[in-house]
Every structure is written in C-alpha cells, then in structure tokens.
Amino acid sequence: MVDPTSDLGEDVDESDAPACANCDEPILQSPTHRVVTWVEDGAVRHRHFCSEECREEFGE
Ligand SMILES: [Zn+2]
Fold this sequence. Notes:
By secondary structure, this protein is an alpha+beta fold. Helices cover 12% and strands 23% of the residues. It has one domain (16-60). It has one helix spanning 52-58, and strands spanning 34-40, 43-49. Strand 1 and strand 2 form a beta hairpin. The protein starts with 33 loop residues before the first strand and ends with a helix. Bound molecules: zinc ion. Zinc ion binds next to loops. Residues 1-24 are annotated as: Disordered. InterPro entries: DUF7576 (IPR055998).
C-alpha cells in the first residue's frame, strides 16, 4: 500500500492540519502555506508556516 503522506516527517500528525511553527495557527488549505525542510542527523525534518511573514519571523 502506498502511503501518500510518507514524505512528511514523523513529527507531524497527518490526520490533522499542520500548525504554523511561528504563530501556532492551524493551516487549512492556505495559499500562503510554506513548508521548510532540512536534514538533521540524517533525517528529513520540516516545519509548516501559515505565511512567508511567519517563516521569516521564525528565523530559520
Ligand atoms: Zn503563522
């Protein structure tokens, strides 16, 4: 069986909307939704942001 969410990190609850890492707002089909991914200790990590502004405020 193919898991369509397998490219998401294990720290995200796929059954729920992701929350913005900066302001904690749930992100529901937002056109300004941003996902930042990086590699840490050999694993792909990611964070969701509701907007470019929040991504910049978070500072990563
Ligand atoms: Zn936000």
